[in-house]
Q: What sequence folds into this?
């Protein structure tokens, strides 16, 4: 794949390009194609409304059966690695990343030392998975796995947990499925199909081009640069809410350059210091981010409750009844309280 030559664009063009590239213009058709076009879905346990991998899909598709994503994972058309969901076509690129070093000296040194010092635990995990896998971590009991240690990078955690994570990141074991929220581990060769081996340098180059294409536009040294095949046509006046982990606003500097929109994840901020709320979703209307909304789904009562709405300075309020009804249907709420 040859390198592409970016094209400098105006902020107005960049906004339209970003929306269309991320399929937030209403052009998304199905779950599999959407994941392929976006490149990946980020996973996170916080689900005040819904887990982000589902919420990102809802923002684009509207009507969505969560079971469709789960089914695609079971069919191995999608796979889970490093807290992201990827398309099977990207497996060779991800496997190239599995073979690479960490890129941070202290983390790399700790990982190598840990794997060396815990050889018996490593052999045990691989042997048990070969014999009995797929297995959840709770079924992998071993004397060496009960101890804890202070790592130089990530803090204190069970050694078994670190062993599973490292073997997963290195491509020796894989997520074979889930029992509710618990990952089921198995040997990688029993989960991943055979693939071609892509050199690390080529994988990095291909991945960077795919990411650029999926974002449509990037910010470099104050200039807005678009992918040469990007679509800058006007965007329909469609209103939806974005996950806090949505790639449209993941790059905070780019979001400020495009919309003057300053956003941060405040679920990790003490309540007294929050500017807005715990789990706030940007409101996208057409090609503009016009406000923020804080919905909470109470699963016990079946109520989708709107805690607050904030409109961005200089933006007009837009009707939210339709996206709220869509969101309520998606999460399975019986009613909406505003």
A:
């Amino acid at each position: 794949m040859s390198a592409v030559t970016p094209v400098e664009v105006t902020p107005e063009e960049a906004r339209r390009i970003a929306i269309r590239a991320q399929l937030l213009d209403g052009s998304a058709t199905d779950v599999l194609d959407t994941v392929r076009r976006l490149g990946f879905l980020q996973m996170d346990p916080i689900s005040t409304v819904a887990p982000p991998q589902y919420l990102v899909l809802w923002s684009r598709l509207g009507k969505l059966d969560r079971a469709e994503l789960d089914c695609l994972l079971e069919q191995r058309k999608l796979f889970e690695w490093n807290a992201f969901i990827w398309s099977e076509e990207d497996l060779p690129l991800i496997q190239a990343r599995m073979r690479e070093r960490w890129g941070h000296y202290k983390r790399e040194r700790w990982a190598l030392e840990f794997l060396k010092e815990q050889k018996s635990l490593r052999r045990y995990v691989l042997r048990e998975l070969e014999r009995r896998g797929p297995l959840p971590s709770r079924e992998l009991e071993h004397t060496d796995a009960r101890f804890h240690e202070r790592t130089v990078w990530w803090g204190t955690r069970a050694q078994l947990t670190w062993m599973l994570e490292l073997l997963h990141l290195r491509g020796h074991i894989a997520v074979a499925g889930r029992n509710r929220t618990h990952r089921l581990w198995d040997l990688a060769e029993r989960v991943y199909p055979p693939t071609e081996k892509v050199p690390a340098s080529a994988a990095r180059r291909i991945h960077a081009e795919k990411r650029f294409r999926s974002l449509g536009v990037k910010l470099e040294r104050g200039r807005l640069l678009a992918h040469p095949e990007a679509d800058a046509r006007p965007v329909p006046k469609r209103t939806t809410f974005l996950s806090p982990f949505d790639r449209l606003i993941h790059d905070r500097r780019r979001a400020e350059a495009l919309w003057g929109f300053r956003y941060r994840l405040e679920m990790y901020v003490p309540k007294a210091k929050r500017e807005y709320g715990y789990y706030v979703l940007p409101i996208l209307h057409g090609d503009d981010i016009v406000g923020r909304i804080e919905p909470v789904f109470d699963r016990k009562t079946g109520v989708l409750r709107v805690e607050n709405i904030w409109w961005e300075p200089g933006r007009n309020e837009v009707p939210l009844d339709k996206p709220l009804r869509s969101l309520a249907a998606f999460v399975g709420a019986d009613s909406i309280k505003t």
Notes: The radius of gyration is 22 Å. The first helix runs from residue 11 to 21.
